[in-house]
Amino acid sequence: MKLNTTVDAVTQRIIQRSQPTRSAYLAQVQADAQRPPGAQRMGCANVAHAFAALPGNDKLRVVAEKAPNIGIVTAYNDMLSAHAPLGHYPDLIKAEARLFGATAQVAGGVPAMCDGVTQGQPGMELSLFSRDVIAMGTAVALSHDVFAGALMLGVCDKIVPGLLIGALQFGHLPTVFVPAGPMTTGLSNNDKSKVREKAAQGLVGRPELLAAESAAYHGEGTCTFYGTANSNQMLLEAMGLHVPGTAFINPGASIREELTREALRTVLGSASYKCPPIGLVVDERCIVNAMVALLATGGSTNHLIHWVAVARAAGIVIDWDDFSALSDVVPLLTRVYPNGSADVNQFQAAGGPGFVIRELLDGGFMHADVLTVRSGGLREYTRVPAAPTSVSEDKSSPALIWQEIGASKDESVVRPASEPFSASGGLKLLLGNLGRSVIKISAVPDDRHVIEAPCRVFDSQDALQKAFAANELNQDVVCVVRWQGPKANGMPELHKLTPPLAVLQGKGFRVALVTDGRMSGASGKVPAAIHVSPEAVAGGPLARVRDGDVIRLDAETGTLQVLVPEAEWAKREVAQMPDALRAANGVGMGRALFASMRRNASSAEEGACSWL
Questions:
Q1: pLDDT tens-digit profile of 295-321?
Q2: How far apart are CA 134 and CA 161, in angstroms?
Q3: Does CATH number 3.40.50.2300 belong to domain 5-35+68-184+219-404?
Q4: Using N-to-C axis directions, what is the helix angle for 206-216 and 189-200, rounded to 10°?
Q5: pTM (global) more than 0.85
Q6: What is the CATH number assigned to the segment(s) 427-584?
Q7: 156 in a known ligand binding site
């Protein structure tokens, strides 16, 4: 299938724009790849330290026999459901490595925090920059530099982008990402949201709300809505960095352990195929494929920040104009909550990532001629893994097989590219005198794509919630929440605002949110212009907005305007962050340790990076 002309044009301009930085990156990858292996390059004391704790046979393999040694970087902890299954993965991987005459070591661990735990809490202000901490932790782990390849064990919001950014600093290493899968279906996402909205209105109490939340989040695995964590997994499939079809296999599934073993086999390669270095896999076409997959599935808005940072780590420069141009032509192929009622388990059953990737390839919306961690290229990611129906006595038959997905099993969840839910993707760039921002429109009702109303300006999400509780917002209103960008307070998600705003919308009021902060990947049905750049604390336009200003958010024309006469707007004073708020920011819950990250952070559109 011929590549879509817009996809091709966007790719070519990214290649041209990135030429200086990408060339420098590839030169470093090549220089690192040309060195002798670590155990042969290092002094004897270095080698002894690196392998002192290995069992004797493993030490013999890696030192004397020069066997490949695979570094494992893990986000395991047993507090968070998505990462709890990872605890036994290293033992599986080490055992499988020995079968192939190789060794594996846990090179290091990285933190994994859960935005579901910290939403609306002070700890949420550490969340975005935890991505860069994870990237640095990955770099520290791999800096021991005795590895022939790497396995990245992690799943959720900031963890996968952080692991990916860190791994790309070691672009000469073959690297495979190893997920754990989603938890089984509990209370439906729609029913959970209804209870949240009732709680926001005071119609149910804490016991009822806690019971609903616990029924939704009930076991090991990722949350089942299509938020940032599960968008991560979709994008890794589209980039060819997983064992194909691994993303949404539940932790307790019979083939889950075998898929983890297959990850080790994949990074080791075979006599006929060598797993390529991650720095070559993640090229401009690979990044475009990830962007297309995000748009075609109505994925998390957080990735308009994270994947900009990921691309920068590989010397590739993308921006929101690229996302916007792709969104105009990429069809929306899925309806998964919050972009529908299905959860990711239903998505997987209906066809999952493999169906979407096949349709995008066949429709000319993805680059097929890309490297992946597998010999079969991206077409391998259009199939679903399964256990063979029989195993030979000598165990010579494969432990896994991959089957064709066929037609959609549920067209209310996934549709072919010839009959999409929408001819365009789920994200829209908004431009105007309030700056540049983005909106996720795939879950917003059609009659809410244009909102024009007087605004209320809030300096924090707590202030908005208090106004809602006092019945001050029972009207058409655009709620502006500022001082929420990366430099101001670390750019926390403002998902706690979703229930009150949804209640107002449910009452028939025309409401919208405008903020320089983030919203959760689970948000959607209330129109929200988010990531407004430049942010207020940097003198951005939100610092000029006043209560009562009429704001027009138009997702059809892609505009975000405050309807104030131009001369008056130009003369208006730029507000400063309130002293009390500034004093409170960065105090307590470890926030002081992130002060330098806030000071050095780039804009949201530049990836909110603290390391550029």
A1: 999 999 999 999 999 999 999 999 999
A2: 9
A3: yes
A4: 160
A5: yes
A6: 3.50.30.80
A7: yes
